[in-house]
Write a structure and sequence with these properties.
The complex is a heterodimer.
Chain A (H helix, E strand, L loop, with lengths): L3 E9 L7 E10 L4 E5 L6 H9 L6 E6 L2 E2 L10 E4 L11 H11 L4 H14 L15 H13 L5 E5 L7 H18 L2 E6 L2 H7 L2 E6 L2 E6 L1 H6 L4 H6 L4 E10 L3 E5 L5 E5 L11 E6 L5 E3 L7 E10 L4 E8 L4 E8 L11 E5 L6 E3 L2
Parallel strand pairs in A: 3-8, 3-9, 6-7, 7-8
Antiparallel strand pairs in A: 1-2, 1-4, 4-5, 9-10, 11-12, 11-14, 12-13, 14-20, 15-19, 16-17, 16-19, 17-18
Helix pairs in contact in A: 2-3, 2-4, 3-4
Chain B lengths: L16 H28 L6 H4 L7 H33 E2 L3 H7 L2 H4 L2 H12 L4 H10 L10 H27 L2 H9 L4 H30 L2 H5 L6 H10 L3 H27 L15 E2 L3 H29 L18 H8 L1 H34 L5 H13 L2 H12 L17 H23 L3 H9 L4 H30 L4 H4 L7 H10 L3 H41 L1
Parallel strand pairs in B: 1-2
Classes of the chains: A alpha+beta, B mainly alpha.
Chain lengths: 361, 573
């Protein structure tokens, strides 16, 4: 078990000109932690992972493994185990030869290697698959071979680059549970890259949400969900509604905002939010926390329904809502809505006081 | 971390690594491709300045005529090859008829012949002393051979037969990659057949046809054996040869410089064009459908025409094979030789002096191929996988070697290495054993480079990264994974380079020495001394070698995609 430290790491590619792919990223990943880099494509999460693996060297900053500076160390000296998005299994080798490759490079004796390969394959439920060719395996099996190949060398840390993105939905959920089980048992520090927030939520000890090469927020799944640091995180995680509302009164960790139809509501706010009466606050409201009420209810927002989608578990309403100035588009996920609501209807929306959160722009 | 900490390891991805790998490659390309070309320029102005060049523009003498003739022949070749190649592609890829597979099996045979043997076989078939005109003369009882091709017409016949595959392959690939639903959409929208052709099919084929035209034009411009055998002296390549044998190296260099420049210009145009081309469809599950020929006359005619076409396609090889077994001097005025024997093969394989050219060719070609493999694979890797300033220059450097006609390569090497320079370790190479392997290396390096680069393109870079991540050093990962996976492509490229080396004539004839006569020069010499049978026997060896290699390469490539495409083809039938 080893911790990983990124200190003001930036990466600029010659071909992208001035824009930094990774911009001043500072992270500390604890020993044994399962840490996820989450963000949309092009946010710099894979570039960050590849710098940890040593495939790119940072343009600036330092990377340390357990205090040792590895910033410019060659990838083959870093002793990390990586699982690639496309698995990168060697097509000219059998399953066993693939898994044994790292052991062979490390000059592990033949007998030891054979034993460890068998153990690793058993760990991923591929006992007896050693002699198979790679193209005889299904996508899910290939994924597990890639995992076994990375784990068998007992690496200082596990690096996973969207390892589930080529699997179908059902297999993806099974495999993520499996990966997490193996990681817990071995206690290997893991860095996981994904654009899938559900995956990140379900697997991670902590998540770093990235956008435009910068870390937007680091926190536990619950923190990034319930207390998003800014509007991007709020919208990216759980597609939150972000409303601009005038501040009536401000306290240390909450503010009271005024609703255009009259009435006030409290929203939680981070320490040092710096807002005062008369400022405009950005308030995040989760679609599933907003309730639909009658258009005449007091202390509610008013809006017009533009689309209704029944998805089974919930009904998604899209609405144009009067928030004082311009109309704001909001989405609501209601567990039970009256059947009669349809496009064009005017309704009221009640915001849940204990669930609102003030975000930075 | 302080001074006690050891220096960090630097890997294949550190900033200076690409330059370390690329520097020797650049040096090789500079020394043996670019610098010799510059030496030719220097040589061309060494006697009387630019006077040699002004001849191309002012006088109506040989220089101007040669340039115009070469351009004219090239333009006519493009036209002829275009008509034949595109028609064949449509016929074979769009229609289903009896005998189609027969033609498809042999369609590339004439083009596979080494240049000298190809031209010789056409001479034996269609020239005034050829089999067909004499047979027709006999049939009709005329004074002179009927339908005998000579001069420029003869050259055009050779060009058409050997270069139409450029069009055939390009058009076939374009047709195969075309989504039939696009055509169907046009019909569905109400367009008639002619309109679909004009507005959909031809525009979609245009990129392929333009590329093929450029290729045929370049190849025709570089053609040397056809004008040599059909006696067209006033072409650029022939003038290079004639001036060189007359000892006027500055004039030969002038022609070479002009021809080289034109070829490089064509290369650059082609690269620019290919950068912006391709309408290949993005949709999945393409299956080009073939139409049955419904017309009853067509149904009856198709197999007959197929058999005729097959005979025409195989005639050159058959002729060489026939003549190879003829006794020298037994073919004077007869339609085909009158006496047959094994003697020719016995001679070239057992008589030491006659066997020497075979040994020379194998040895020199093997040496050149070894060089091509090492340099070609590394350049392919550098161009495809590494980021460094001047990457596209390296790419262009290799392709210049491909674009330069063999005659020009030979003149360049003469200009650069008739005295020693740094790249020949101070030795004069002209007149030594080393000049021919060097010429083969320069000429066929692009073949290995292209084959390696193509197979490298199919290998995911993350495979090498995975090996590095598992602890392998760069050389180990490169050899274990990348080179190992490239191997089929590299072998195909190496075999191609090797057979081209064994069949090489164009550059060889300008720079060979009496102790390193290669097979093709021996064939040429035997033809001159009317030992036609022996010449053909040498040719037959080249032909057999080529077909063995083609068969073997086909087997190597038949894994993966090829097999899949064949299955798809069967499925649509």
């Amino acid at each position: 078990m080893i911790d990983v430290e990124l200190e003001s790491v930036s990466k600029r590619f010659a071909r992208t000109g001035d824009a930094a792919a990774v911009d001043d990223v500072t992270l500390t990943i604890g020993a044994g932690e399962f840490f996820t880099l989450l963000g949309p494509s092009g946010c710099g999460k894979t570039t960050t992972l590849r710098m940890v693996a040593g495939f790119y060297f940072p343009s600036a900053g330092h990377i340390r493994f357990g205090g040792q500076d590895v910033t410019r160390m060659a990838p083959n000296k870093r002793d990390t185990g990586m699982v690639f998005q496309n698995y990168a299994l060697f097509p000219h080798m059998t399953v066993a030869q693939n898994v044994a490759y790292g052991l062979k490079v490390r000059k592990v004796s033949r007998a030891d290697a054979a034993r460890r390969v068998a153990e690793a394959l058993a760990e991923v439920h591929l006992d007896g698959y050693g002699p198979r060719r790679i193209d005889q395996l299904s996508g899910g099996q290939q994924q597990r071979v890639a995992l076994a190949r990375a784990l068998v060398i007992r690496p200082r840390m596990l690096l996973l680059d969207e390892p589930l993105s080529n699997l179908d939905a059902k297999l993806r959920e099974e495999t993520r549970t499996e990966i997490r089980r193996i990681q817990r048992e071995s206690g290997t520090t893991s860095i996981y890259v994904t654009h899938d927030q559900a995956e990140a939520m379900a697997m991670s000890d902590r998540i770093a949400v990235m956008e435009s090469g910068r870390v937007q927020q680091v926190g536990t799944p619950r923190e990034v969900y319930h207390q998003p640091a800014n509007a991007f995180v709020a919208r990216f995680i759980g597609r939150s509604n972000v409303l601009s509302l005038p501040v009536a009164t401000a306290e240390a960790n909450r503010v009271e905002v005024a609703l255009p139809g009259g009435g006030h509501v409290f929203a939680g706010a981070p320490e040092g939010h710096g807002l005062g009466a008369g400022d405009t606050a950005l308030v995040s409201a989760r679609p599933e926390h907003v309730t639909v009420v009658s258009a005449t209810a007091t202390g509610a927002l008013r809006g017009r329904v533009t689309a209704v989608e029944f998805t089974g578990m919930t009904t998604h309403l899209t609405l144009d809502v009067d928030t004082g100035g311009a109309e704001t588009r909001m989405t609501v996920a209601a567990v039970d809505t009256p059947d009669r609501i349809g496009a064009g209807d005017r309704v009221g929306l009640r915001l849940p006081a204990e669930r609102l959160w003030v975000v930075r722009p | 971390m302080g001074a006690t900490h050891r220096a960090p390891h630097r890997g294949a991805n550190s900033a200076w690594f690409p330059y370390l790998l690329v520097a020797p490659l650049v040096l090789i390309l500079w020394g043996y491709v670019v610098q010799p070309m510059l030496a030719t320029f220097v040589e061309s102005v060494s006697d009387d300045g630019t006077a040699n060049y002004t001849r191309f523009f002012t006088s109506s003498g040989v220089a101007r005529t040669s340039l115009l003739t070469s351009l004219l022949i090239s333009a006519a070749s493009v036209l002829l090859c275009g008509v034949v190649g595109v028609a064949m592609a449509f016929l074979l890829k769009r229609f289903s008829f009896r005998g189609r597979r027969l033609i498809e099996a042999f369609i590339l045979v004439p083009a596979a012949l080494p240049p000298l043997i190809g031209a010789v076989s056409f001479q034996m078939l269609y020239s005034e002393i050829g089999i067909l005109p004499r047979a027709l003369q006999d049939l009709f009882g005329t004074e002179r051979p009927v339908l005998a091709f000579d001069g420029i017409a003869g050259v055009l016949v050779v060009h058409t037969f050997t270069m139409y595959p450029f069009f055939y392959l390009a058009a076939s690939a374009a047709l195969a990659g075309m989504d039939p639903s696009v055509e169907e959409a046009a019909y569905n929208l109400g367009a008639g057949r002619v309109r679909v052709w004009r507005t959909v099919l031809l525009p979609m084929l245009t990129p392929a046809l333009v590329s093929a035209s450029l290729l045929v034009f370049m190849t025709s411009l570089a053609s040397y054996t056809a004008p040599l055998l059909f006696g067209v002296d006033q072409t650029m390549t022939m003038q290079i040869y004639i001036n060189r044998t007359n000892g006027d190296l500055p004039m030969a260099s002038t022609y070479a410089a002009v021809l080289g420049l034109v070829s490089i210009a064509f290369l650059l145009v082609m690269r620019w064009y290919e950068g912006r081309r391709s309408y290949l469809s993005q949709s999945k599950g393409i299956s080009a459908r073939r139409r049955e020929i419904a017309n009853p006359i067509g149904r009856w005619l198709a197999p007959v025409a197929s058999v005729l076409a097959t005979i025409v396609l195989l005639a050159p090889v058959a002729t060489i094979a026939l003549v190879a077994f003829s006794a020298d001097g037994s073919w004077t005025t007869e339609i085909i030789p009158s006496a047959y024997t094994w003697e020719n093969f016995v001679t070239i394989l057992t008589e030491p002096r006659a066997f020497e050219p075979i040994l020379n060719s194998l040895q020199m070609s093997l040496l050149a191929t070894a060089g091509c493999v090492v340099v070609g694979v590394l350049i392919a890797y550098a161009v495809r996988r590494l980021r460094f300033i001047g990457r596209s220059l390296l790419d262009i450097g290799v392709m210049i070697a491909w674009a330069l006609p063999g005659t020009v390569v030979a003149i360049n090497l003469i200009s650069a290495f008739s005295t020693g320079n740094g790249f020949s370790f101070g030795q004069a190479l002209i007149g030594t054993f080393w000049i021919l392997p060097l010429a083969y290396f320069v000429r066929f390096l692009p073949l290995v480079f292209r084959a390696s680069s193509a197979s490298l393109a199919l290998i995911d870079p993350s495979l090498e990264e995975a090996a590095r991540n598992l602890g392998a050093s760069w050389p180990r990962a490169f050899l274990n994974i990348t080179v190992r996976l490239m191997l089929p492509g590299v072998i195909v490229g190496a075999l191609l380079a090797f057979v081209h080396g064994v069949g090489e004539f164009v550059a060889s004839v300008l720079i060979y020495t009496s102790s390193t006569v290669p097979i093709s020069v021996a064939i040429n010499n035997r033809m001159y001394s009317f030992e036609v049978g022996t010449a053909a026997a040498y040719g037959m060896l080249q032909v057999v070698l080529i077909f063995v290699v083609m068969w073997f390469s086909g087997r190597l490539e038949s894994g993966g995609g090829r097999a899949a495409s064949r299955q798809a083809e069967q499925w649509t039938n």
